[in-house]
């Protein structure tokens, strides 16, 4: 594969997407990417990283998204139930 194509694919993988506000890499592996320079040379980002805090943050983020999906599902069920009640009422 051409080196330019690899760089373009890596840039895409590391760029937050508009719909999810997350990078495809983060959605796949559950962690942020590091450019090769960060691996070889300590950066502020690496020095400040706390695995426990990261796990707690990911867990809280997952719970918020899960609660949001549950709320949307409950809202959809209520609106579906309301539609069937209205359809029955109008038929009488």
Report on the biggest sheet: none
Structural class: mainly alpha
Distance between the termini: 68 Å
Strand content: under 5%
Number of domains: 2
How many β-strand stretches?
Answer: 0
Tally the helices: 5
3D structure, described in words:
This protein is mainly alpha-helical and 92 residues long. It has 2 domains: 1-49, no CATH class; 50-92. 74% of the residues lie in helices and 0% in strands. The chain contains 5 helices and no strands. The longest helix is centred in the last third of the chain and has 41 residues, at 51-91. It is flat, with a radius of gyration of 22 Å. The termini are far apart. 0% of the residues are buried.
Give keywords.
92 residues; mainly alpha; 2 domains; 5 helices; 74% helix
Topology readout:
Elements: H1 3-13, H2 24-29, H3 36-40, H4 44-48, H5 51-91
In short:
Helix content is 74%, strand content 0%.
């Amino acid at each position: 594969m051409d080196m330019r194509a690899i760089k373009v694919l890596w840039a895409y993988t590391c760029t937050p997407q508009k719909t999810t506000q997350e990078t495809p890499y983060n959605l796949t592996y559950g962690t942020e990417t590091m450019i090769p320079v960060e691996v070889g040379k300590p950066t502020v980002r690496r020095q400040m990283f706390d695995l426990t805090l990261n796990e707690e943050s990911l867990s809280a983020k997952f719970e918020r998204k899960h609660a949001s999906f549950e709320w949307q599902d409950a809202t959809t069920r209520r609106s579906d139930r309301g539609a069937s009640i209205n359809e029955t009422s109008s038929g009488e």
